[in-house]
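Encode chain A's predicted structure.
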Amino acid sequence: MNKERAIEDLARGTVNIVSREELGGKLSAGRTLRVKLGVDPTSRDLHLGHSVVLGKLRQFQDLGHTAVLIIGDFTAQVGDPSGRDSTRPVLDHDTVMKNAETYTQQAFRVLDRKRTEIRFNSEWLKPFTGDRNGSVSEFISAAKHITVSRLLEREDFKTRLAAGVPVSLLELLYPVFQGYDSVAVKADVELGGQDQIFNLLVGRDMQKIHSMEPQVVMTVPLLLGTDGVKKMSKSYGNYVALNDEPQDMFGKIMSVPDELMYAYYELLTAEDLEAVRREHPMEAKKRLASLLVGKYHGEEKAVQARADFEQVFSRKEMPAEMETFRVESAGRLSQILVASGLCKGMNEARRQLTQGAVRIDGEKVMEDATFQPRDCVLQVGRRQFRKLTVR
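Encoded structure for chain A:
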């Protein structure tokens, strides 16, 4: 692939490239680039929002370059202030390491393991902040060159200060720690979400301080969740996890608003957007769901997931296969909903009943009555089913 075509492909779906000319120069240098992505493992599951930047990293790998995936076991205990309107809760080390294990496992569903270098930033940030050999630490030296006015340029800090919301000293220092990651791994390119632009640019500053050629910075949009309103996040309940079951993943994608579907195509696939827009929206959305399920679960699972969806929703039938739950004694319907895993707690179960989202053998049930054990199908919403049995 020639340089111009490579740049066009890499630029697809990006928000910022600092700078395009520098990227062209690095791609023309004829050497393997080190492309950095830092992730703080603040939860256990990756979702499609994470896959946007992971997919961009995979594009560099497909061009023959090395992905440097930095697990922020140090910085996760500091708390990234990016995009926050309040201080992020600080995690303990054990929680961070448990999350990191699942992060790396799920990241390799997108990345090429052979071209990926995994690093933990405590490796260099503990010495960076410490006093080594009786001399002034590198952190102290770097801090002399990063001014308070520079750190206060970031919009999220300005917004919080204007609203009277505290900004901690530790949050001010976070960009310095992340910036030093780029020095430690000798990054040629750093990727991140658009809310990371300030931190990534500080990485360029830190490399200049250490007389290094500054990294190219590339950011991608934050993927909106299935509600079409807020960014995809587990805390908002609008996410599609990479380890969702095929039928669940297919159904969640089908719930995405039509107008958002095209952004999903642009950010999560390599499909021709003009051709997609000429398709009927329903068919285009089914194809999108099939593409994504196929990517993470295989073509066979994608075909089955589509067939199940069409059987349930297009023809108003029950799915061919569903999980079975044995009912051993009579109990409130809300209790059965929780015990069978259809609802996470009693409050959710009662809310689903009140909203008319619960059906037994296709018949709507709105009262939390006593359920007498019998063979039937219990349904919540449009996608969740359990075959109840007394046997």
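The CA atoms of residues 269 and 291 lie 8 Å apart.
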